[in-house]
Amino acid sequence: MxxxxxxxxxQFTEEITIRSFATVVGRKEAEGPLGPFxxxxxxDNLFGEDSWEKAEQKLQQYAVxxxxxxxxxxxxxxxxxxGGDLLNQxxxxxxxxxxxxxxxxxxxxxxxxxxxxxxxxxCLIDGGFADLLVACAxxxxxxxxxxxxxxxxxxxxxxxxxxWTVTGSGAYLLGKHTGDxxxxxxxxxxxxxxxxxxxxxxxSAMAAAAADTIITFAxxxxxxxxxxxxxxxxxxxxxxxxxxxxxxxxxxxxxxxYSDCGMAVYHAEQQDVHAGGSGCGCSxxxxxxxxxxxxxxxxxxxxxxxxxxxxxxxTTNLQGDSIPGIGHGILIEKV
Amino acid sequence: xxxxxxxxxxxxxxxxxxKEVQAEHQKLVMAEAEVKEESLRxxxxxxxxxxxxxxxxxxxxxxxxxxxxxxxxxxxxxxxRNIARAFLVGxxxxxxxxxxxxxVMLKFGLETREAAGIVSVTVVVITSILxxxxxxxxxxxxxxxxxxxxxxxxxxxxxxxxxxxxREGLVYGVGAKIFTIAGPVILYGTIASIVVGIIxxxxx
Lengths: 335, 204
Description:
The complex is a heterodimer of chains A (about 325) and B (about 200).
Chain A: E1 4-5, E2 9-25, H1 27-30, E3 40-41, H2 52-70, E4 80-84, H3 91-100, E5 104-106, H4 113-126, E6 133-139, H5 141-148, E7 164-165, E8 168-176, E9 181-187, H6 202-221, E10 229-232, H7 236-249, E11 258-260, H8 261-264, E12 277-278, H9 280-295, E13 302-310, H10 314-318, E14 325-334
Parallel strand pairs in A: 2-3, 4-5, 4-6, 7-12, 10-11, 10-13
Antiparallel strand pairs in A: 1-2, 2-8, 2-9, 6-8, 9-14, 13-14
Helix pairs in contact in A: 2-3, 6-7
Chain B: H1 3-7, H2 11-34, H3 38-73, H4 79-108, H5 112-132, H6 136-143, H7 145-148, H8 151-164, H9 170-177, H10 183-203
C-alpha cells in the first residue's frame, strides 16, 4: 500500500495535472463577486430550452466543451467522463455523457460530486488506466428547488440557515504532466451523521464531515500547516463557523487560511441568499475562478479543497430521518 | 450498557462505544444466521435488536452534543421583523378584500355572504396572475406568513404547482401534482368543516 498514508489519505505517484477547466453559470451567479471570471453566462435559467432539466444538461455540456476547447482537444480523446448532479438518477450528467460518447462513471455525492469525481479520476490516471479525462458537476437552482423543496413560484419565506442552490457547472480536465496545477493527495471522506434533520440547515449537517476530513488529513500527513488555503465546498456561513469551532477543538486553528466556496459565490446581503450558496455547481464554479486562477499564484502554493455533500433524501427526511454528511478532500498544488 | 452511563460520556467515549457496538452487531448477525433452531434464532434476533437500539441511542447522544455546538453559531430568525412584515402585507391583502367587499355591496346591493364570494374570487384571480408573472413569490419572500395565510396564499400554492409541473404533461404533471401543497389544506379543511357542521347541528 505504498500509495496510502495513514488511515484515509491517498498519495499519488504520477504527476496528475489539471490541464484546463471551464465554468458556466446563470445570471444570478454572474451578478456575484466572481462574475467577471466565469467563462460563459447563461442569459436566463432556461437558456432557450423548454425545461430546466434540459438547461442544466446544457450547462454541463458547455462547461465540458469549453474546457476541452481551451486546450484544443476533442471529446473523443477523453478516456473517461466522470460527473454528477443533484437530479433524480443524475440525469443531467447521463444526458451529457450521451452527447460526449466516451466511457462514463455517473457519481452521486450530492454537493461533493465534483471532488468525488476528481479523486476517482486521479486514481484512474495514477493507476495507468487513463491519460485524459473530465471531472464535472452541475446544479441548477430551479431543478433543485422543485425536487427538494417547493415549486419555484411559491411565495415562501426562507429561513436564515437556508442556502441558495447555485446554477452553474464546472468541468475540470485532468491529465498528466502538462498543466498549471497538480493533484498530489486525496482524502475520500466518511459519512458523518450528527442527527441534523432540518433540510434548511445543510451547513450544520455537513460541517462535522468536513471537519472530520480536515482533521484526518492533518493526522495522516502532518501537512496541514503547509497548506495555504483550506477550502470547504458549500457549508455557508453557518457551517463555516461550526466547522471552524470543530477544528479549533482539535487544535487546528486555520484562521484566515480557511474559507468556504458557498460564502464566496454571492454577495450574501444584496442577493438575499441567507447563509450562502450550495449545490454541486458551487464548489465547481468557485474552485477554478477564485482559487486556481486568482489566489494560487506562486509555484508550490497548496490548496486543500473539501467537497461537502449533504446526502439528503426528501423521502426519508419526511419520514423523520437525519441528513448524512460527507466531505471529500483533495490537495491541489500550483505548478 | 446502562443509558445513564452513556449520557455522561464524552464525545470521544461515545465514538469509541459506537464502534464497539457496531463490531458486536456483525458477530450477532452471524450468530443469528448460523443457528438452525427457531427459538434460539429468535433469542439472537432480540440481541441484534437490542444492539441496534443501543447504537441508535449513542448516535442520538452524539447528535445532541453536536447540536448544542451548532445552535451557538446558527443565526436567529428575525422574529419581530418577520411578524411586522407579515402584519403589514397580510393586513394590506385583507384591507384590499374589505374594499372590494364594501364596493360590491354598495354598488350591486349584495348581501355580505354573496359579496364575500366575489372577494375570494377577486383575490384568487389577482394572485394567480401575479404568480404567473413571477411577482407573488417576491411578495411572499418579503411578507412570509402574511402572504400564506390569506386565500391568496392558497391560490399561489395551486398555481405555482401547476406551473411547475406543466412540463410533465397535463395528466401526470399538472393533474397529479397541482394539489401537492394545497392538498393537506383541502383535505383537513373539509374534515374540519364536517366536524364543525356536526357540532353545529347538535348544539345549534
